[in-house]
Every structure is written in C-alpha cells, then in structure tokens.
Amino acid sequence: MTSPSNHTLTFSNPDDPKSAPREAARLMVGTDLAAEMVAKAAERAKALKDATGVEACLATVLVGDDPASATYVRMKQNRSKKAGIGSLSVVLPAETTTEELVAELRKLSEDPKVHGILLQHPVPAHIDERAAFEAIDPAKDVDGVTMHAFAAMAFGEPGFRSCTPGGIIRLLEAYDVPLAGAHAVVIGRSPILGKPVGMLLLASNATVTYTHSKTRDLADIVKTADIVVAAVGKANFVRGSWLKPGAVVIDAGYNENNTGDVHFEEATLVAGLITPVPGGVGPMTIALLLEQTVAAAEAQTTTA
C-alpha cells in the first residue's frame, strides 16, 4: 500500500505557537488499508485450499441475544465469507453458565476443522469472561484475548495480537506516524484493548502512559501526548482542549449514534491526524481478525 501520508509527520511543541498546525486534522481512514489486508488474506486462503483442500474456518461464539453483539458477529461472518474463509456460528442462550461456555470453547479448540475462535464480548455478567477466554487454544486465539497472547505482545514473541490494538499499530505505520521516542497516552486499561495497545506501542519504542478512571489531572496528562489512544467507552469524553497541537488521535471508542470517545469536531481543530468513527479503527479490527485466521489455518495445516 502506498502510504496515505503526504509528508513525514513531526510532532509540534506546545510551547512554541509557531509549531501549531494551521489546518484541520487529516483523517486516518482504515477502510482502504483494511480492504487491502482482507484481499491479501483471501489470496492466502485460496492458495491454502488449492494446495491442501483445507478451508480456513473461523468459529464465532455468541452468548445471549444482545442486538449489537449479534450485529457484530454477522458482520464478521459476512466479511469471512467474502474472503473465502469458512464460518461456524455457535449461539448459546443468555443463561449459559461459565462451565457450559468453557466446555463449548474447549470443544471448538479440539475440532481440527476450526482454525480460529472468536468469543464475542462482552458476555453476560454472570459469566467469568477470563475463564472463558482461557479455554481457547492459543493456537486458535485469532482475536488475541488469552493471557498467552498478551504475554507474547508484552515480550515481543510470536503470537496473535489483540485485533483492535494490532489494527491500530498497522494504521499508525501506514500513515508514517513516528512511534520511536513519541509519548503515547492510552486512556483505558481493558485487557483486550487498553493494556495490549500500550504494550505494542512500547515495543515500537514509544514512551507509554496508561490513564484510567482513577487518574488525577487526566486532561493535563493527555495534553503532553504526541499520540492519544482513546479507549474509555464514553461518548465525546476526550475534548479538543485536552490535546497538544498536532497530536495523533486514535479513537477506539464506538458508542450510540456512531459516536466515538473523542469529541471529533473539537479535536479536528487541534490534532494533526485523527481517526473517524466509523471508518477508522473498526475496519482494521476485522481485517486483522481475518488475516490472523488464515495464518492460524496455515500453521495448523503445516503442523498437522
């Protein structure tokens, strides 16, 4: 992919008014890059099937009937089909117990026809989500939700990345955002988004500050960031006045009415680059999921 950047990005100095950007932020759109990633995954899936007869297969597990979760699962299944990746759908009732869910995930982990497993989250509150995630074979954890995946990201070892954090890094790289030496502030500390994206940024030689609901003087900390990753789950939470001029803003939130965690209208007047919602991080998440599913199928077929 030809880089979407028109020039090499440099970060501004908030103490030097001459360094402030004079134009509205450029958009970091994930749609085209994601489409390219999916097309390449489809080519690899076809090559695998042609050579071995094995069709890469992603199993999706949905517990309950939450409309948003059901929509996400259908979207992922449709994208899988378009990429030539098989899809196995498992829908369990909302009253499913942790033990029953764990048993289903272990069954899928042992199924040689299944190469990747996606447990749609969040699961109902009565289920131990961590226990469910850990029932997934790390070799099939194409969503990067197990402790094995987190350790691999933290130590820079081979393994599947958490899809949204991994997609964010790929987007930053595509837009030539300099990560080495940059100060990145992550707002949020979930085990499948906030924490792993910080680990991946650290592995790229950024200096990382984690912030969360207990952080004091949050706006002042965000103001020091060259790169802001908003993953807090609150609409319009990050205001434009919090940002350093020219900062790169990654909005990983998705709330009602297609609203992100960043106040987009305010932020575009200050930031240098910003992801829209929708069309920014979201497409990258699904693209990486499919890419990793094909990689899992390739690895399992080679070692079978």
From TrEMBL:
InterPro entries recorded: Aminoacid_DH-like_N_sf, NAD(P)-bd_dom_sf, THF_DH/CycHdrlase, THF_DH/CycHdrlase_cat_dom, THF_DH/CycHdrlase_CS, THF_DH/CycHdrlase_NAD-bd_dom
Protein name per its UniProtKB record: Bifunctional protein FolD
EC number: 1.5.1.5, 3.5.4.9
Organism: Kribbella orskensis
Entry function: Catalyzes the oxidation of 5,10-methylenetetrahydrofolate to 5,10-methenyltetrahydrofolate and then the hydrolysis of 5,10-methenyltetrahydrofolate to 10-formyltetrahydrofolate.
Pathway per the UniProt entry: One-carbon metabolism; tetrahydrofolate interconversion
Matching SUPFAM superfamilies: Aminoacid dehydrogenase-like, N-terminal domain (SSF53223), NAD(P)-binding Rossmann-fold domains (SSF51735)
Annotated Tetrahydrofolate dehydrogenase/cyclohydrolase catalytic domain residues: 30-143
Ranges of biased composition (kind: Polar residues): 1-13
Family named by the database record: Belongs to the tetrahydrofolate dehydrogenase/cyclohydrolase family.
Gene3D superfamilies: Leucine Dehydrogenase, chain A, domain 1 (3.40.50.10860), NAD(P)-binding Rossmann-like Domain (3.40.50.720)
Self-association state and partner proteins as the record states: Homodimer.
Positions of NADP(+) binding: G188, R189, S190
Domain of life: Bacteria
Entry-linked Pfam families: THF_DHG_CYH (PF00763), THF_DHG_CYH_C (PF02882)
Regions annotated as coiled coil: none
Residue intervals of the Tetrahydrofolate dehydrogenase/cyclohydrolase NAD(P)-binding domain: 162-300
Region of interest called Disordered, as start-end residue ranges on this chain: 1-21
